[in-house]
Amino acid sequence: MKNIFYLVLFSIVLVSCTKEVKIDIPGYKENLVIDGNIETGQPAIVLLSTTNNIYSPTNLDAYLEGFISGATVIVSDGIATDTLVEICTDDLPAGTEEIAAAFFGIPVEQLIELHLCAYISTSIVGEVGKTYSLKVIHDGKTHTSSTKIYQPKALDSLYWKPQGSSSEFGFSWAKLSDIAATNDAYRWETKYISDLNFNKPFNPFFNDKFFNGLTFEFAYENPMSYDDATYPEDFRGYYRVGDTIVIKFSKIGIKEYNFFEKKYNQMYSGGNPFATPTNIPTNIVGGAFGVWVGYSPAYDTLICKF
Q: What CATH number was assigned to the domain covering residues 32-148?
């Protein structure tokens, strides 16, 4: 009985010592988001949007309402300067609808009914070795950034081989000799040779932190197979014997890589209560979020055969 008495008394003390904790959550503040890129042989393209309140609806309408038009966007390579032209999806040049649809991630039939705008250079295209500055003027504020198009790094070799017990399905494999003198980062994209646009795999960005100066082999899955009803369920992510694919292997800067690495970590851990909170870095100066990135791609073709 004495032990029971002390147990009850201890429980009462524990309950009586609870304290209400109040946490002040900062209010939502709308910020500009800049998504800009320039790659070798291509004009600069910039998308502008606004951040969304975490408690706001997450639907297509909210996504579309976030895009911004009417800003001034300027790109310079140190010699030439160009004020980008605003081109909107409801006034696209003929033949560019599928390219724009892939860029925005919206089906063509929906895209042409919408008013989504991108800012595109008409006189500056990417060149290897050049550094490009960006200036965005919107709502009385100026935001700036800078990025470089580095010397591209070609893959040593590219090959396909079956996986496991299957002789028909396998991954695309590559061998890469990394440069020891520099810290490098890359993006991997792929498409079937008959496709117009490239696709990204599960995580298309990586750096040389663990293989700087080494030659190594690695594999990537087939991102096109996940929406292909002709693929058996157990072989989604693989390439088939007979596929002909094009690999676009682009070099990017380390600051730009840091943005994408954190962004993808956040995307893939969304909803996980045990995930470490991530602040996505930016190379934009002036209070905006996002990234301004230069790409230098090298291309290779792979025929999936024994």
A: 2.60.40
